[in-house]
Amino acid sequence: MLNIPFLSKGRQPDFAASAEQGGLLIVGSNGQPLHLVPPKVAAELRFLVARLQANPLDIPPSLAVTSALSGEGVTFVARSLAALVAHDLNRSVCVIETNWWRAATRRRSAPVEQRAGLAEVLAGVIDLDDALVTTNDSRLSILPAGQAPLARRPVIVASDAFSAVIRKIAARFDMVVVDCPPVLKASEAITICRQCESAILVVRHGVTSERQVRQAIHELAGVDVLGLLLNGSATRVPRSLRRFTVDD
Amino acid sequence: MSRRKAAHAAVTHLPSSRGSPLTVARTFVSRALEALFRRWWLYLVPIVLFAGIGVALVDQRSTEYRSFGVLRVSGRTVLSEITQVGANSRFGYETPAAYTSREINAVLGTEAFIESVAERAGLGPALVTDPSTAASLRDSIWASASSDLLVQVNARAHTPDLAQAVARATVDSYLQWQIDDGVSDSHLAEEFFLTMLEPYQDRLDAARDELQEYVARHPGPGDLAERPLDEQLELGRLTSEVDRADDQLATATQALADARLASAQTEAEVSARIRTIDPPYLPDAPEARRRQDALLLMLMLIAGSIISAAAVAASALLDRTVRYPDETETHLDVPVLIVVPSDPNLLPTAAL
Lengths: 248, 352
Fold this sequence. Notes:
The structure holds two protein chains of two kinds. Chain A is of the alpha/beta class. Chain A has helices spanning 15-20, 39-54, 74-89, 100-109, 118-123, 128-131, 153-158, 160-172, 188-194, 210-219, and strands at residues 24-27, 33-37, 62-67, 93-97, 133-134, 140-143, 175-179, 198-204, 225-233. In chain A, strands 5-6-4-7-3-8-9 form a seven-stranded mixed beta sheet, with helices on both faces. In chain A, α2 (39-54) crosses α3 (74-89). Chain A is globular. Chain B folds into two domains: 18-61 and 290-341, no CATH class; 65-278, no CATH class. In chain B, 66% of the residues lie in helices and 9% in strands. In chain B, strands 2-3-1-4 form a four-stranded antiparallel beta sheet. In chain B, α2 crosses α3 (40-61), α2 crosses α11 (290-318) and α9 (160-217) runs antiparallel to α10 (229-273). The interface between A and B is large, with 79 and 46 residues.
């Protein structure tokens, strides 16, 4: 079992068991675990991948994953989906993180060193190749968000340089998954989504209200929103009573 | 809808019953159950609270004592047959006991009767100092028919002595009220004739005095016929005056006696018609009311459950968060692609 520094001892999952049950573990080139796709989540996302494949137009080459509010699991879904497409379909996938808002909150809660990423590439500080984080799956790369001041973010995503970087990455990879900030929290999310072929709206089960989702969809007018992804679904209803519910 | 979205929808969507009344009902039930089991402890609060209030009420009620006396009420008595006092049936289609218990409960509503009971039970001062005494006294007394002829007069109090005293005072007050009701006309007649006796007696005395004075002023032969004609006439007039006054007094005296007899007859008739079979006893233990207590507890539990159910329903109705794919698709007209389950072993996504 790998030692994950940002987890307490009691919560470390059994990676080997997860892998046997269909889960996926993404590890960075430095050996640091970057992401775990639990078996249950992987199973559901495989349905999504299969359905997207069944679409005559196939899986969109660029897919924005966004949400109405923060904390709905956009980064988790984006990375999981990218890892599954790379692993199951043997396609090269790049996750572009544009969720600077999330990166800022993560730094406040867990002091992890912020890597240079998209913001620095656009600023010309580093090359794209240097910014891309490779993983244990050679088909999967991640472009971190980097550090962008709040006031600069709308300017960055509206710039031609941003579009050029997206196009450049899309040309190099079979699929680009863009991890977007929440639509109702950051105006740049709308601009980013419009630069992708399709978008998925992640909704936290039992947390986000219909009004907020409706508002987010309204904000994304003109964007090809494939649909909602209901994340973190859980029920406290006992199994014996579920035959009376829509969970059954 | 874009080409990709339309194509995707064509692949993923099967005909569903979404939006049907059954689905709406199931969704509401789902939300209600979810709300209930998510915060079950919150919805338990009203039930526990009401149960606690019920237990407190039962505990408070269990320290009460009940005393009762039993009256036997007759429709007709031998005395009433002989004297015709109270001979007319007053009960109508009711049984004597039912009529009497209803009458007792009715007179309990009057201030005069409650004051009488309070005075007899030694609660007169409390009645003056605390205006709520009359109301609580009223609430603690009731009568009920236990058979066609038997009436139970009940009183409940926090002490056995007081329960007995109140029950006894109620019985006594009712009997006195019955007597007073029956003899009120007789008493009026008595008072009237008593006031008339003195002037009648004075008139008789005056007539006698005038006759004696005349005889003294005109001494003469003992035989009236030997007296002069004018004396004969005057003596005749004075003698008639005395006789008239005497008759008047005798009539009033007889009427007074008749009125007193009527009072006595009424008292005797009431005593014969309403007899105390069991005088109110001194209760030796608090009243055991298991059935009532159980009913009260059950009602409180039901009330608490209703409030909890209402809170659960309100929570389900007010909860507009996205939970169920069918409902979401109906309300937002956007397909739900997949539902990703929550995983307790989920790693926090690492920041890069």
